[in-house]
Fold these 2 entries.
Entry 1:
Amino acid sequence: MSSVLEDRSTIVPVHIDGEPERVRRIREQAAERFNILGWPTTRSEDWKYTSLTPLANIDWKIDQRQPEGKAPASPFGDKPIAELMFVNGALHANRAALANEHPGIRVMPIAEAMETESFTHHFARYADYEKHPLTALNTAMWQDGAYIEIAPGTVVEGFIHLLYVGGGNAEHPIVSHHRNLIVAGRGSQITVIESFYGKGKYFTNTVTEIVAGDGAVVDHYKFENESLEAFHIGTVQIHQERSSSVTSRTIATGGGLVRNEINAALTGEGASLSMEGLFVLSGKQHVDNHTVIDHVAPHCDSVELFKGILDENARGIFDGRIIVEPDAVKTNSRQTNKNLLLSETAIIDSKPSLEIHNDDVKCNHGSTIGQLDEEALFYLRARGIGADEARNLLVYAFASEIVERMKIDVVRENAGRALFARIPRRMPERRSESR
Amino acid sequence: MLDINDLHAGIDGKEILKGLTLHIGTGEVHAIMGPNGSGKSTLANVLAGRPKYEATSGTVTYQGKDLLALPAEERAREGVFLAMQYPVEIPGVNNIYFLKAALNSVRKHQGQEELDAMEFLQLAREKMKLVELDEAFMNRSVNEGFSGGEKKRNEIFQMAVLDPKLAILDETDSGLDIDALRIVAEGVNALRSEQHSVLVITHYQRLLKYLVPDFVHVLADGRIVKSGGKELAEELEQKGYEWIESEMAIAQ
């Protein structure tokens, strides 16, 4: 595939072989949109906490050559029923053949799915490239990604894993635009895990659209574990139909500058959504979590819980909005953000918000920011548990509310490992003593 | 076992213990009684190494070691146990996991083999019966949602599992009904032996009916002002702390 130079302010859309006319048109519209909108700035309310200047100033190149050295290993071994691995935006390994033998399961690179009815119907319908510059950029530039379609009534046991690996360096900054579409048919059930790893300096710009049909049950996990030099901007756009049930979990432990957008629209009566997030940051990491839950239909429930653990000079953001539309009566919605600061130099901005357009709803929201409980720390130490271990126990305890709810053992263990990899082993009271 | 000599200590620069001297021999049970604000809890916290409590002068020697030089976890590993007045709730930390980690860090320090999950559970079940705690408690988060009495019994349960050489009970009896009080006392009595020493800190004499001490000390204004046998507790119960205070006033 050719290398495409992106000018800082204007882009020319990518086209891939065999692309249908509709996709071609969407790409051109999206490119045009990006060229009008430009990179977002902190003047925009949606981007007030995160400046993309360091990102926009780099001359990113699409380069799907495999990086040298050994291909990375999957964190889940042979546990997924199907796995697609993408390296710098290109398909690297496809382990979906066995799963695809089931008539109700389709797991394939999205570039191969463009002629399917479902793709034609759903692609780019939910992730809004009119308003969101990075979604526009992705929609114009994507090279590959995953397409998952589960036939009505099909209950998929186990989970599907999408693994994205990035790699680059200062002389050779590489961008990957991943594009995924997950369609869960009426009454189907599926668990999909996306995970992001990498080495060096690169930029991941990913968009995943998820459609949960009537009564479908979808569990989606995103493990963002990029290299500490990497930029990651991702949108997960969830569209829920009648009585569907979606659980979305975003675990962010990696990346230098990260924006996680998780948006859901509850468009069918009786839909329910659980949106959870955990971000564990240290060093100079900057992770901006931005969520919008749009209650469109009546009788829907949403529960949102984001927890942040921040150490050293890290900065975290939780900016969550819940919108209850005029027709969405009997909405039941709860939004919570809790943060644990492990250092005096870590920063968290927490901005929960509700926007309610009818008066027959039950909604609440709140956020907390705290430090490790010194009393609890002493209690553990007074029983013989070392200071470092006690601290880790309490940090894990804070995260456990989210980690322990992960139903798949190997996934839960992976989350626990990722969490501890980011927490420097340092006693909190050493700081207070040195003051 | 424990020698406290002329200990001055306090918190936030405020001196609360003003020259406390106390000797606890191996196998002895001592009770310290005193009115509110006399320094009872400060003594317990200084001995256990709670941050912010500071000893300004004097010495505390535990089994020949300078206790005050050790961090809290080292004291615990050396066999000092503090049953807390206000056990803290720790959501997300499983009771049984926590206690197993605690026991194994103590055992490791003392050169004993660590217990595996099965061995630990067997021990825990046995000790749970002693304090009449339901096994369901063990799989909950540490003290989370426990009643006051359950928290105190959990302290005694932990003590029974950790088998400390020196147990310090900081007002473990306060707020307990008579059944819970009896259970706490039985827990402590089970620990009593020629190798174990116990320091019971209490405001009331009630507990000492079930847990008969070898020595009773009265703490007032940061000093031991009177020491005696178990009958001193009864005398205090009858005459009240005003009796001590008036005696002190006369002495001055």
Entry 2:
Amino acid sequence: MTAALSADPPMPLLRMQGVSKRFDNVVALSGVALEVRRGEVHAICGENGAGKSTLMKILSGVYTPDEGEICIDGAPVRIAGLQQAQALGIVMIHQELNLVPHLSVAENIWLGREPRRGWFVDRERQREGARACLRRLGVDVDPDAQVSTLSIAQQQMVEIAKALSMQARLLIMDEPTSSLGEADATRMLRVVQDLKREGVGILYISHRLDELDHIVDRVTVLRDGRYIATLDWKRTSIAEIVGLMVGRELNQQFPPATRQPGAQLLLKVRGLQRDGVFGPVDFELRRGEILGFAGLVGAGRTEVARAIFGADPLDAGRIELDGQALDIRSPRDAIAAGIAYVSEDRKAHGLAVKMSVAHNITLANLGVLSSRLGFIDAARERETAETYIRRLGIRTPSPEQVARLLSGGNQQKIVIAKWLFRQARIILFDEPTRGIDVGARYAIYELMDQLAATGIGIIMISSDLPEIMGLTDRVAVFRQGQLAAMLETRHCSQQHVMHHASVGPAEPSEPPRVALATLS
Amino acid sequence: MNDRQKDLIQKFAALAGLLLLVIVFSLTSSAFFSVGNAMTVSLQVTSIVYLGIGATFVILTGGIDLSVGSVLALSGVVAGMLVKGGMPVAPAFVLGIGVGALCGAVNGLCVTRLKLPPFIATLGMMLVARGVALQLTDARAISGLGEAFGTLGNGALWRIEEIDAQGFPDVVFPGIPYPVLLMVALAIVATLLLRRTTLGRHIHAVGSNGEAARLSGVDVNRVTMFAYVTSGALAGLAGCVLMSRLVTAQPNEGVMYELDAIAAAVIGGTSLIGGVGTISGTLIGAFVIGVLRNGLNMNGVSSFTQQIIIGGVILVTVWIDQLRNRR
């Protein structure tokens, strides 16, 4: 390299300047700048609504900007449409995977760009091309396997393989690890590092700031559609980034515990079992306690919770509430007993998205608001909804607002309000902060602590280890459908939990290499 | 703009369309705008409304009921046969409606227990019910059912007649036909049920997100059953009223009526995905179809052309609805 070249900063792969985008009268982006170098992993941080996805959609050709300049290799370009973005080597991997479940891996990778021989698809070339891309990623997936039979992690790898087959030079990854367990997330990050070494520029969006630590070179922070700062990862801290994202100093990620777990047993579970899925599982939950369910994805945590709630059938086991045996055959039985479930996927299982905020809050307990003939007292319903909207700080223009239009954090609060109104005594939270931005997370944590302080027993399933460590009193660690360990949170570390979840009991002095979330 | 306002605009658009039709037909045909013709249209629309209310319930839960046209025929035929066999008219009609409810219950069981897609379950019932109706009657109409059989369909409340100088009766006011009264009553009851009761709320919840409803403790199967049984019973009622109007039991009656019912609901803003829809909308939708048919008839437009126009109206209304909901 000559002296002149090394003195100048290298020409960036991508440079955006003064990019603005307006929808009707809402400014989604205003004057945003961004620069990605070859072989750089560049994270975009910002709360929901900060403009991250608008920015990504502009880059991938879904939206055209109102103002601003985009340069690739220093040459200004116009990106109109996905095809054009792909021609420039910009490929986006969406949070919701965009694969066709009933086609094979190879067919998905080449979808829309099938290699042909005459009028027909050249299946051999298709398969070989797919195999080559998968090999480059170091993943062991059969190109002929139907995508619907693959795990989420494998599907994500197929998405990346597809991006590679398009000769991606700039890869945009939106929350790539949000649906992965720790082990798969680790592999995923390793792939990112490999791509980086090959000179691919990577734009990385993630809510899990801690996982950025191992891979990210620089971070650009957006807030309310505006560019805030670009920081060198090595010279910044999570606290500083979070502070820039929310516009205020966030000293601690978790609220101080105000609850006092009692000695009184609330829930006692014995020999809970579902053949081939989990069990037998034994554990207890005390009044006012937050019990964490940790483990890798697929370890059976969600399945145990759903079985307790009656959402899935049970083959054996005994569930006692306050010393009384319960016969739970459906969610109705569980709800009647005072058990509530806040599901992982709000839009699929938790909310009636087309119904109003008020109607969602009262849905599980309409009987209380109705006359004997089943007529709902509209005034009391409104009053109830307003009470809970105020109490939980749900940000909505009115109780009549359709639930779909609210942010993730507010939707989560609606689901919690529903169960509070139902006077739940035990609430099972499944990944309560998934897809919820950092500022709103704190509010959810605070709420969970307050609920526990009123004597409610809480079980929290989480794949986010810092969350488990920061919030729970005890941790139940699951591994392959079994309860691997029951730990006092105070007396253990993330390494302990991770080790139980992935390998089994061992010397805590020998922290497992898989643990990615160990530093935070 | 919140959804309530959107809903109002949607309804207003349909209503404005209906008024526009009325104005246009009033200008093109002198006989159109009269009390007598208004009653005729209302009477013609009643069957669509009975079935449309049932369709709205079913579609709100995210289902579809293709069997109502055939169930209508079976119920009417059963009522007619019972009367022919010597049973008084009132209990015969009740049993006819019962047959409809039973068909609805079978549909509901197929959907909730056998987990058949609603389209398939009710398609099966459509063929079975029609076949049974034809089998029972040997495909022949049953006539000679007596005057009492025709009262429900042809009677009217507050009919005023005067005897003129020549001694002939002169109709001052045609009265409000019983089927129209029944339609109004049903629409009010159905509206109250959907908007004000727990059951109505649960119907919306099941259609909006069935799994979320189940996990909120809603008895999804019971709610779904209710929708199909109601649809079947209303089809039975429509059958009895229709056969009573004709004073004959016709096993071939009601072919394709299910499509009118679904069209009425859809024109009125009911979403085929479920969770969204109102009875007032369906009522407007039914009148759009009824006024179109009546007005086009009066203008001498052939029934084939009518079909083309109504098909076009359905496509355009739903397209406008899609435009509004996009973004």
